[in-house]
Fold this protein.
Amino acid sequence: MTQPLAERYRDRLPLTATTPIVSLGEGSTPLLAAPRLSQRLGLELWLKCEGQNPTGSFKDRGMTVALSKALEDGAEAVVCASTGNTAASAAAYAARAGIAALVLQPAGAVAAGKLAQARAVGARLLEVRGSFDEALAAAEELARRGTHVLVNSGMNAYRIEGQKTAAFEISDELGRPPDVVALPYGGGGNTRAYYKGFVELGAGIPRLLAGESAQRTTTAATAIRIADPVHAAEVEEAVLGSDGRVVTLREEAIIDAWRLLAHDEGVFCEPASAAGVAAVQATELAPRTRVVCVVTGHGLKDPASATRLTPEPIAVDPDPDAIAEAGR
């Protein structure tokens, strides 16, 4: 049986011997070689498939630590503002811990798959008539009143602590840190966490490429639809400290990378999760550079995008000749 992430890295996390671990079996996600993409781009490309976490995104790494500490401190409820993945993760881990979860979502900005997850596990969902940033401000105020523990990564340092463990896993599996790590950039917490993880390892810091949408407030990649990244200063520190860069991407570039991941490698992710691959495509790298692209969330998080961006099924009669003709 796989050891819970928080137990596996307890000595590198802010946990005590008595911290109750709230786990759903997160971490130990696949690091897949991407041979067709590697050939296409002239690189040695790997995919860290974080959609294989329990709720389908990288958020579970931080949430196991945040909820474990909340439970240790006697919390009775948690709150978050979310464009979807944080909501699904917070709701699931709160249910696992036996405490209430309140989710504030910006109106019209959350994919259906993520809403379904949070609702299914019993969270209280409130749709805020406003932006993500306004929803977050309201969540912060509730936390200040002492009724809820805020589990957004910008205000809960335990989230970043848990998320840094992906850097440990990548280095362990490859035998050393890669040359480049590319990942989506919405709020910036994950970029901050990877940088922190590689710094703590002390074995060399990969160049960090943080792929953001040029249309931050309206992008179809809803997981990174955040106008004002709460970790902007830390992202700047991370890209400067790693000789990396923030790569601003057109919508078409993100969608093209999403299709490439699916068609070339069979990896189905939500559109935002392809921003790391798009950032690599937009960056000139030396041949055979070893690159890890972090694929942050599963495609079933956003089924509407998959339906919108792929061809409709073709209706045919149950006739072998008609089927062969239509299948060409």
Remarks:
- The domain at 59-155 is CATH 3.40.50.1100 (Rossmann fold).
- Residues 134 and 312 are 37 Å apart (CA to CA).
- The chain has two domains: 5-57+158-308, 59-155.
